[in-house]
Amino acid sequence: MMHKQESTKPDMQIRLAVISNAGGSGKTTLSVHLAYEMAHRKFNVALMDLDPQGSLTLFCGLNPPEPENTLAAVLKDNFAGNWPLTNCWDEYTNKVAICQGGMVLTQTADELVLHKRGAYLLGDCLTDHPLSHDLIIFDCPATLGPLPLMALAASTHIVIPVQLEPKSIQGAAHLIEWYYFHCKHLRLNPTPEILGFVPNQYDSRRAAHRQILESLPQQLEAMNIRAFPAIRDSAEFVNASGQGLPLHIYRPTHSAKSDFKEIAEHLASLMRKENQKKSKKST
Amino acid sequence: MPARKAPDITNYFSAAKQSQQLSEAEAEIQRLKAEIEQLRNAGSTELETQLAALRSQLESTSGVLSISLDQIQPNAEQPRQTFLDESIESMSRSLDKDGQLEPIILIQRENLVLFDGERRWRSAKNLGWQALQAVIIPEPAALHRKALLTSLHREDLNPLDKAEAIVRELSDNTGLSPGDIPRDAFYSSTAIEYSETNECCG
Description:
The complex is a heterodimer.
Chain A (H helix, E strand, L loop, with lengths): L13 E5 L8 H14 L4 E5 L5 H5 L11 H4 L11 E2 L8 E4 L4 H11 L6 H8 L6 E5 L6 H9 L2 E7 L2 H20 L7 E8 L6 H16 L12 H8 L4 H4 L10 H22 L1
Parallel strand pairs in A: 1-5, 1-6, 2-4, 2-5, 6-7
Antiparallel strand pairs in A: 3-4
Helix pairs in contact in A: 5-6
Chain B lengths: L13 H29 L1 H19 L2 E4 L3 E2 L11 H14 L5 E5 L3 E5 L1 H10 L3 E7 L7 H10 L4 H16 L9 H18 L1
Parallel strand pairs in B: 2-4, 3-5
Antiparallel strand pairs in B: 1-5, 3-4
Helix pairs in contact in B: 3-4, 6-7
């Protein structure tokens, strides 16, 4: 039987899963900076940390949460709808909230395997207890296990950050196979769209980076997948994350913050389009 | 030290590209099957009337028999070659709920071959039934089997199935192999008809 994933999400809500199956590909960096960029464009954003490492907690300058204040509590059968959301960078914005992750999610991952709704649980939670945010970002762990699968099933779009190195590119290619297999296997309808690839930690002084950055778009174009501009390598990203801030707040004049502009604009135009459809319907 | 060459990422994506093509092909198959089903339903009224007349004629001459499913052979010349899983499932539900409403029609050859009722036959097998009610066409030659197959069924065929039925008919009558029959003439005319059909339905 088909599991039609009926959704009661707000018409314009985008749920973006940030997935890669290699560590250090810049998932959390991308999640955090996209969240800030979109908040800057007046959208409400919820960040969800599906990673047991809990990197988002660090990048948002928060303290490690109690297990009952993490996403693990949301995924329990007795969840009543009180999402444990904490505001991020609240001196600077009131538009970004985070549902934190942590080690307790390793246990959640084990339980998911046996749960009857396993891969659909997060989508179920968002259907039963909808969030009003314009954008929800799922920051996934670096393996293609049950947690990213659950994010895939709950998402409307996925974005794939890669390092410009053979191992990371090859991992991303495997991720595409994983995506097609599971979209079919889980009968995701509508199928989440691949927003595109985002090359990360680009060091223009390295020939291998330049070569891969040059040949990647051609490969992706053959599959009709978009390659966003590369995000440059900078020690300031590391420093900013250590302070729990996006680069935009940590070094407001740093030129690397413009690297997120195109993908943020693209997301914003998607959400505006959805909005227009909605207002047309209601007139 | 070996010379350093640029990393070639082309090979990395070959399996990913295959996954994508497979997924797109599967979606296309589903879409086409649904379209065929829709076309068939659109043109099936006249066929149903003719089948009903044939059925009642056979009922009055030889009566309705209970035929074991094992004795029934599918018809290799069945012009409908596409059966949606959903379509078999809905027939199974109907059989299970209401029982068999109309007898199926079989042709008496060496075996009993299905003339009308393949969907019910497939569904009955899925349900684990032993037998179906049937009427039998005793003399295939006298009834101009081929003429019946093409004229009766032609109305509710999608153009591709129809083209194949015509190729088969020509090949039977001329002794040419299907591959030798020039296809341009009627494939292009069915293509025109196909696009017209789509325009009128779309």
